Amino acid sequence: MKKPIILFFIAYLIAWAIAPANASEATLTTQAKHILMQELESNNVDKSLNKQIVCLAENIYFEARAENISGKAAVANVTKNRVFSDKWPNTWCEVVKQGPVRESWKTKQNPDLPDSERIYYPRKHKCQFSWYCDGKKDVIWANYEKTGETIEGNARAWRESVRMALAVMDLEKTFTVDDNTNGALYYYNHNLVYPYWADHMELIGVLGNHTFMK
Question: What DSSP element (H or E) covers 51?
């Protein structure tokens, strides 16, 4: 029993060590980066699209890591529906990261600093997608960095998330994905919360751990 506890503690410490200074950015372990590059290269993706693909893939992973392919597709499709809606921003990263922000004290104290160099952080628990500003370190653990050992479930979920992101963005060569949410723009995990806005939306259906609405 002691060994799993020790491994978990080591993993936790490494997460803090390798997490980026900006808590709103996810960190990929070595194998997670390798999986990402494999999928991008196998589909000959233009490098200018990499950032947007990563934003969507991370959203799928953190929102639906434990879901099956249909569940991951549903999260991806809600994100896509927002990108193409006039009510939301028009890029994948802006949709995923949407929410109020606060400026870092490090840049706020310098009035002469250009806007392009200022650092902003999302306000805790105020984002459209909860994982992005829940105050936790976001690490995609495809492997243990200390030993190199693969974490099979996480590695598989990350690869599925990257491939789903590519498919929803019409960049995946081997399969396509239809909108299995019937145009949903909202969803929530009915096992954890019942949001105040749910009573004012049209119910579309339930898939996995999420209820979808518009």
Answer: helix 50-64
Do residues 102 and 120 make contact, with C-beta atoms less than 8 angstroms apart?
yes
Residue with tokens 């949410």: 181
Q: Residue 96: what residue type?
A: V
> At 42, which amino acid appears?
S
As averages over each run of 10 residues, the pLDDT of the chain (214 residues) reads 48 40 74 98 97 98 97 98 97 96 92 92 93 94 97 98 98 95 97 94 95 96
Angle between helices 50-64 and 30-42 (to 10 degrees): 120
Tokens of 9: 């503690």
For the four alpha carbons of 50, 124, 128 and 131, in that order, the dihedral sign comes to positive
How far is residue 11's CA from residue 17's CA, in Å, rounded to a whole number?
10
pLDDT of residue 22: 43
Identify which of 164, 212, 159, 205 has the alpha carbon closest to the alpha carbon of residue 37: 159
Amino acid symbol at 13 = L
Residue written as token pair 């494999």: 38
Tokens in use for 154?
């996480």
Residue type, 156: R
Structure tokens, 189: 């995990």
DSSP state of 113: S
